[in-house]
Design goal:
This protein is mainly β. It is built from one helix and 24 strands. The strands form five sheets. The protein has a seven-stranded mixed barrel with strand order 1-2-3-6-10-8-7. Strands 11, 13, 18, 19, 20, 21 and 23 form a seven-stranded antiparallel β-sheet that branches. A four-stranded antiparallel β-sheet has the order 12-22-15-16, with no helix packed on it.
């Protein structure tokens, strides 16, 4: 289940309003200001900032005067999200920044807080992945400059579509190559984050490990227009590089 916080501060799929004043939103890691008195110096203090894990509290409220049926359905939906997010990471999309975060629920089972005219829910969340990613993938299949528009390095996924023999791509002078054949109707997929290479049958989705034939180079894009693809040995429409802009 994916939570979306819209530009208007609506929380979907719950159709609630975000309590901006009481929520800590998923923009950055927690910061703790530390003050230390310097020994032997009268009144001089040394200040620093310590960054910790990203922990957030999402507080949301219903519109006024929900019916009993609406209250019961919403409580069930929120409880379902809590249960899922406690077991495995879920997606949170913050529309204002255009970024997707991966979060887990880290609170205790907490009942909704019912007031005279509305219901309030509190969701303590923790970043499963400290980075935020663009909602949509970027891609290119051509020679030229590649631009990671985030502020952190972005992992890539290369796809070579068969039939091909010994396909390769050269980026910033580094060669990324496969020794072997990619049959027609299949795609060689190289996943830099997982450090895996496999051949996927485009018909039935079956995957065959191709790590042994890959030359052990995996491409990560630095921030900015700092990556230059200079050579592709695959034919037209047979190679695509995918990535998601990444922010810390």
């Amino acid at each position: 289940m994916k939570i979306t916080i819209t530009k208007e501060n609506h929380v979907l799929p719950f159709n609630c309003a975000l309590d901006v004043d009481n929520s800590t939103l998923p923009f950055m890691a927690e910061m703790t200001e530390e003050v230390e008195t310097v020994p032997g110096v009268h009144g001089e203090k040394q200040m620093s900032t310590r960054y910790g894990p990203a922990n957030w509290i999402l507080v949301m409220r219903t519109m006024e005067y929900p019916t009993c049926e609406q209250k019961d359905a919403l409580i069930k939906k929120v409880d379902d999200f809590r249960a899922r997010a406690a077991r495995e990471p879920q997606k949170l999309y913050y529309e204002r920044l255009g970024r997707v975060y991966t979060v887990r629920y880290v609170g205790l089972a907490e009942r909704a807080r019912e007031y005279a005219t509305w219901i309030e829910f509190r969701l303590p969340l923790k970043a499963h992945d400290p980075m935020g990613y663009a909602q949509n993938e970027s891609s290119t299949g051509k020679v030229g400059v590649v631009h990671n528009r985030g502020n952190e390095p972005a992992h890539t996924r290369m796809e070579f579509r068969g039939p091909l023999t010994n396909p390769s791509v050269t980026v910033n002078g580094m060669v990324y190559a496969y020794s072997g054949s990619v049959p027609g109707g299949s795609t060689l997929v190289v996943d830099a984050k997982a450090r895996k290479a496999y051949i996927r049958n485009n018909g039935n989705g079956a995957m065959t490990n191709a790590r042994k034939g890959w030359n052990n180079n995996f491409l990560t894009l630095p921030p900015g227009p700092a990556t230059n693809i200079t050579r592709i040995t695959a034919g037209t429409n047979q190679f695509t590089l995918f990535w998601r802009n990444c922010w810390g």
